[in-house]
Design brief:
Distance between the termini: 57 Å
Radius of gyration: 20 Å
CATH superfamily of the largest domain: Metallo-dependent phosphatases
Shape: globular
Strand content: 15-25%
CATH architecture of the largest domain: 4-Layer Sandwich
Oligomer: single chain
Strand order of the largest sheet: 4-8-9-10-12-11
CATH topology of the largest domain: Purple Acid Phosphatase, chain A, domain 2
Largest sheet: 6 strands, mixed
Number of strands: 15
Number of helices: 11
Number of domains: 2
Order of helices and strands: HEEEEEHEHEHHHEEHHHHHEEEEEE
Structural class: alpha/beta
């Protein structure tokens, strides 16, 4: 067999190693957006339809342009559902949410006064990041009207994009940037609707006895003095401060022991008493994290830690974690079946 043929075949197969993550992009059939930019007296909506860039001026009042920073601690929530690490796999995430009755057949909020927690990493890898962001944006508003709540917690890949690290963006978005003549991070800059919305989001949320964070809370991070509201405030403020990236202060929050990058629960073989000490200090009974991929939702350390990164990023399967009445924990399968975690 011709060596060049073999090389090209291997290259082609490697392009499709994960469903939907890398593909040959035909610009003529590219659809993406909208991306909405904020100017002094108007909004500018930019989207790509069948490879053509469509630009439209909108009234400044067409979208919210100011997003309130919400509290970090919530009490007395009966029903919580959690997922993480969607990574642009919009279709699979929607199927999972529909089958588990979180959204209806038209992708509208169905979970009444329950709380949906997304523990980071909507961005990167997959081809439908923007679609997922707008869905969460919509569900936030719909849930509020039903006295429910959507919490979108920022993960390491959100911060990577906001900090200008574009290592893992899908090829689709490289084409989008070519057509828009913009850097990918600019699509979510502080003068865009979604960019401002993202900058209002927390890194850590506590609901009842559960603390939700993308990577985890490490003993080393706790040694600086833990305060959930202060941590969220500092991490928001550091998003647009490039000048501090080389400092130890920055590394404390965004280094390997920080809340969005820490992998110690899965990698460091910690002792049970070390987990108990962490939980005691953050006034929680459980920590729910994403970041470390598993085939399903898992529990560790006698149900003290729950891992909800169920490898949705592969585009094939995913699960949810359900928390009922603050004490009953269930896996929600892709088919909508609930399987209780029992001690």
């Amino acid at each position: 067999m011709n060596i060049i043929y073999i090389f090209n075949l291997v290259l082609l197969l490697s392009t499709f190693n994960v469903k939907g993550q890398q593909q040959i992009i035909d610009t003529k059939t590219l659809n993406d957006g909208p991306y909405i930019f904020i100017e002094k007296d108007k909004l500018i909506k930019k989207e790509i339809v069948d490879g053509n860039l469509i630009i439209k001026d909108l009234r400044l009042t067409s979208y919210d342009t100011i997003f309130r920073i919400e509290k970090s601690v919530y009490k007395k929530v009966k029903n919580i559902v959690v997922l993480s690490d969607i990574h642009g796999q919009y279709d699979l995430a929607v199927e999972l949410l529909k089958n588990n009755k979180i959204i209806d057949k038209n992708s509208n909020w169905k979970y009444n006064n329950g709380h949906l927690v997304i523990v980071g990493d909507i961005f990167d890898r997959g081809p439908k990041v923007n679609e997922m962001l707008w869905l969460v944006y919509k569900l936030e508003k719909q849930a509020k009207k039903k006295k429910g709540k959507v919490h979108f917690i920022l993960g390491n890949h959100e911060y990577m994009i906001l900090h200008g690290n574009l290592k893992y963006i899908n090829d689709k978005y490289k084409k989008t940037c070519e057509l828009l003549k913009l850097n990918y991070s600019e699509l979510y800059g502080k003068h865009t609707i979604l960019g401002r919305w993202l900058r209002s989001k927390p890194t850590i949320v506590k609901i009842g006895d559960n603390t939700f964070v993308h990577g985890g809370i490490s003993k080393k991070f706790l040694s600086i003095g833990y305060d959930i509201e202060k941590t969220n405030k500092i991490m928001r403020e550091l998003i647009d401060k490039d000048e501090v990236k080389s400092t130890d202060f920055y590394k404390t929050y965004f280094g390997e022991n920080g809340p969005v990058w820490y992998r110690g629960y899965f990698k460091d073989n910690l002792r049970d008493n070390e987990i108990s000490d962490i939980l005691k200090e953050i006034l929680s009974k459980h920590i729910v994290v994403g970041h470390c991929s598993n085939e399903k939702v898992v529990q560790l350390y006698d149900h003290k830690i729950f891992g909800v990164d169920s490898s949705i990023k592969k585009g094939e399967y995913g699960e949810l974690l359900f928390i009922k009445h603050g004490k009953k924990y269930y896996r929600g399968t892709l088919q909508g079946k609930k399987i209780r975690f029992r001690k």
